[in-house]
Amino acid sequence: MSFLKLILKNPFRRKTSAILAIVGICIGITTIVALGGITDGLVGTFEDTIHAGGADFTVTGKDSGNTAYGTNTISSNWTSIIASVEGVNSTFPIYVTLTNVDGNPMFTLIGINANATDAAEMEITSGRIFKENSSEIVVGKIFAENKNLSIGDSVSVNGEKFEIVGTFESGDQGSDGGAFTSISKVGEISGDEGSISNVYVVVDKESDPKEVADRIDEKYGENITTVSSVMEMNQMADMLNMLKSASLAISLLAIVVGGLGIINTMLMSVFERTREIGVLKAVGWSNKRILLMIVGESLVITILSAILGSIIGYVAVTIAGPMIGITPIFTLQTFAQAFIIAIAVGIIGGIFPAMKAMKLPPTEALRYE
Questions:
Q1: pLDDT in the model for residue 303
Q2: pLDDT class for 236, splitting at 50, 70, 90?
Q3: Residue whose C-alpha is closest to residue 76's, from 188, 180, 217, 183
Q4: Mean pLDDT, to the nearest integer, of 28-47?
């Protein structure tokens, strides 16, 4: 049997221990991949939202509040105030809130002006746009399909009946799982009439978006915040940092638990194969070759765990993400992080048992029963 085949086959001579070690590490890797996909998906979704309609940046409230962005609302007058700043080409208001629609308390309801569908990057696929300040609503394709809704049906928004007059598709699963209605109606439903959650800002072609944003900050920074990336939103950045910290903590936990599991599995393997290791040494195997074999066997277990964990994490979040309004994004960095951790666990967990095997005197090992 070749050296490589020996390394691939040996870990599974003790199937129960190997499976338990794989399950332990697999859980850690699954969580790392799942959280990574969710975190990157949230960043991507909010970046798309911030730059909807080709907006260069977004203006939001300054403090914590109840909008979907975690900020407070601002007066709708800010739309015209921002529009008057030098370098600003156009502005349009939006009110995004999480509210109760047909029993779902976290439903994304977006309020815009009826003539701003292009700016919101939504395409009416059937029916028509809602009328201003009416109890009419346009629902996303995913929401309509999941609830088997069609034009003429109605939905309950915070207890108020809204007629579905159209369906739309934006290409974003988060938006397509929500609905649009009149911005004034969203303010009324929220008990916050005359307010908006954001102002989308498009600057003149010859202007630098950063300079225009700085100009707005300089004039009105005490009352509003300009946001050009999701990490500039304090509340969102806090949440993303929390998810990243959780991912890091789970990674460390996976290293510790997985490492202990691997050490236990490989130590038992070494003890059970004491005589076999003695024979290998007696026929001329060097300590380096013994070390490579034990560490290699350890790596087989952890890499197999990484493959299984990555597949499970990917499939689970891909299926569950849209159900909670998140479009997961899986990057090479996420999978690379998972495999680096798995390989580190494999090496760390395999070295100690390998050193025990290297120290076995061949004569004593051969006498071992």
A1: 92
A2: low
A3: 183
A4: 80
pLDDT for residue 178: 85
Rg value, the chain, Cα: 29
Amino acid present at 163 = E
Q: For 331-363, write each residue's pLDDT tens digit.
A: 898 899 889 988 988 888 888 888 887 777 766
What type of residue sits at position 366? L
Interstrand relation of 160-169 and 123-127 (parallel, antiparallel or unpaired): antiparallel
CB distance 263 to 330 below 8 Å: no
| Encoded amino acid at 66, one letter | N
**1 contacts 10 by C-beta, under 8 angstroms:** no
- Mean pLDDT score of the chain: 81
Instruction: Name the strand (E) or helix (H) holding 255.
Output: helix 234-272
b (16+ CB within 10 A) / e for 172-195: bbbbbbbbbbbbbbbbbbbebeeb
Q: Are 310 and 32 in contact (CB under 8 A)?
A: no
* Distance set, CA 237 to CA 48, 188, 229, 293 (Å): 16, 29, 10, 45
Task: Report which residue type is found at 84.
Answer: S
**Residue 195: pLDDT above 60?**
yes
pLDDT of residue 181: 92
What is the pLDDT, as a whole number, of residue 322? Answer: 72
Q: What are phi and psi of 160, to 5 degrees?
A: -100, 135
Q: CA-CA distance, 129 to 217, in Å (whole number)?
A: 35
Strand 160-169 vs strand 154-157: parallel, antiparallel, or unpaired? antiparallel
* Long-range CB contact pairs, 100-104, < 8 A, 24+: 100/156, 100/157, 100/158, 100/159, 101/155, 101/156, 101/157, 101/158, 101/179, 102/147, 102/155, 102/156, 103/156
Q: What angle do CA 328, 117, 215 make, to 5 degrees?
A: 80
Pairing between strand 160-169 and 136-140?
A: parallel
88's enclosing H/E stretch is strand 88-101
Which pLDDT band holds residue 164 (cuts at 50, 70, 90)? Answer: very high
Residues 6+ apart with CB under 8 A from 35: 243, 246, 247, 250
